[in-house]
């Protein structure tokens, strides 16, 4: 009558799906179950096996396994009292044609109510995307302040990462009464066409993203997308108008960053695409995005005038970083930071 089960590192002659379910059913008081780096052996076709209900299970971890194995386990466990769910398949085994709709509508179906409850209870969502790997991560805050891991943390893979993100959010937020504030982390968005980004402006998350953390390489498309207004029915609108905190860890010149932020926070209607010729400009009004309260730029190449440009465009309540008050443009640091 075990309370916790951990199966780790069984890559050859691993358990069958029946073995896994038997171990669970043999422990009716099971509270914690973790499968990590395990390969399931062939057994009865999984679609012929009925799911099992585990009323006392509070924590379920499925880590570093093939997506197909992960899906089989998820689709056969029903845990109405689950409070922690972490699903992190092995990225090296991510199938290019992985069907996210099947994952959500079949494998995660039993856990929808658990995920919805966590989103509502914590009233915060963290989303990370990486166009290089196709990885999408969705997480809620931890159960307790002293926890290091989220309560709900699910990783997905899709070749067109923005399309996959759209499916994820449409499914995960479908039955949530009010979309919570969102932190969006962009690990990489290179190669993503702008058409794959525009849907966010019409989605329910557009007014809910309050913090963006961009960690991409130079030349990435997301920061220019964020700082470009688009005329929609006579109003020039901005992606994520409620954005209040912006963190940048990409290598970007101070002059370019000042130019992009000026487009968003001190725009000139003449420079907004779609508002030409000049005689049309009087028919457009500019939406005003919320002002930033926190800007953190890590390891940029700044001249002092660029720092002054930030203060002029955005305003500053508190300024940190002596490097940017120097008269010399040659002053450098291995890890420069600018905070407004």
How would you describe this protein?
- There is one protein chain.
- With 340 residues, this protein is an alpha/beta fold.
- The protein is built from 9 helices and 17 strands.
- The strands form 3 sheets. A 12-stranded mixed β-sheet has the order 1-2-4-6-9-8-7-10-11-14-16-17. The protein has a 3-stranded mixed β-sheet with strand order 12-13-15, with no helix packed on it.
- Helix 8 runs parallel beside helix 9.
- It is elongated.
- The N and C termini lie far apart (56 Å).
- Mean pLDDT is 79; it is low at 317-336.
Number of helices: 9
Structural class by secondary-structure content = alpha/beta
Shape descriptor: elongated
Name the beta content range.
15-25%
Could you name the ranges where pLDDT drops below 50 across 5 or more consecutive residues? 317-336
Main sheet: strand order: 1-2-4-6-9-8-7-10-11-14-16-17
Outline the biggest β-sheet: 12 strands, mixed
Quick tags:
340 residues, alpha/beta, 12-stranded mixed sheet, 9 helices, elongated
Short description:
24% of the residues lie in helices and 22% in strands. It is of the alpha/beta class.
What topology emerges from the helices and strands here?
Elements (H helix, E strand, L loop, with lengths): L3 E5 L8 H9 L6 E5 L15 E2 L5 E5 L3 H9 L1 E2 L5 E5 L11 H8 L4 H11 L2 E6 L4 E5 L12 E6 L3 H12 L9 E7 L10 H4 L6 E6 L7 H5 L3 E3 L2 E3 L7 E4 L5 H12 L19 E2 L7 E5 L5 H11 L22 E3 L1
Parallel strand pairs: 1-2, 2-4, 3-5, 4-6, 6-9, 7-10, 10-11, 11-14, 13-15, 14-16
Antiparallel strand pairs: 7-8, 8-9, 12-13, 16-17
């Amino acid at each position: 009558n075990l309370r916790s089960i951990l199966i780790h590192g069984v890559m050859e002659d691993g358990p069958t799906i029946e073995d896994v379910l038997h171990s669970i059913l043999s422990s009716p008081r099971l509270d914690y179950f973790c499968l990590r780096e395990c390969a399931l052996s062939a057994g009865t076709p999984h679609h012929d096996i009925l799911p099992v209900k585990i009323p006392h299970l509070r924590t379920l971890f499925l880590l570093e396994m093939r997506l197909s194995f992960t899906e089989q386990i998820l689709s056969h466990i029903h845990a109405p009292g689950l409070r922690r769910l972490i699903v992190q398949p092995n990225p090296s085994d991510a199938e290019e044609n992985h069907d996210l709709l099947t994952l959500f509508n079949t494998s995660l179906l039993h856990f929808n109510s658990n995920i919805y409850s966590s989103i509502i209870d914590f009233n915060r969502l963290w989303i990370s995307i990486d166009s290089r790997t196709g990885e999408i991560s969705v997480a809620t805050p931890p159960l307790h302040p002293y926890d290091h891991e989220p309560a709900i943390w699910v990783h997905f893979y899709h070749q067109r990462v923005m399309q996959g993100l759209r499916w994820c959010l449409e499914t995960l937020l479908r039955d949530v009464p009010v979309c919570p504030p969102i932190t969006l982390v962009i690990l990489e968005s290179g190669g993503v066409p702008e058409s794959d980004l525009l849907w966010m402006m019409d989605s329910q998350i557009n007014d809910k993203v309050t913090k963006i953390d961009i960690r991409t390489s130079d030349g990435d498309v997301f920061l220019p997308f964020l700082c470009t207004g688009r005329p929609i029915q006579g109003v020039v609108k901005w992606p994520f108008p409620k954005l209040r905190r912006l963190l940048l860890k990409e290598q970007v010149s101070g002059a370019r960053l000042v130019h992009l932020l000026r487009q968003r926070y001190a725009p000139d209607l003449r420079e907004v695409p779609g508002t030409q010729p000049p005689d049309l400009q009087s028919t457009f009004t500019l939406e005003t995005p919320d002002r930033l309260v926190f800007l953190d730029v890590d390891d940029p190449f700044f001249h002092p005038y660029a720092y002054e440009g930030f203060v002029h465009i955005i305003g500053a309540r508190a300024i940190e970083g002596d490097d940017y008050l120097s008269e010399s443009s040659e002053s450098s640091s291995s890890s420069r930071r600018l905070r407004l």
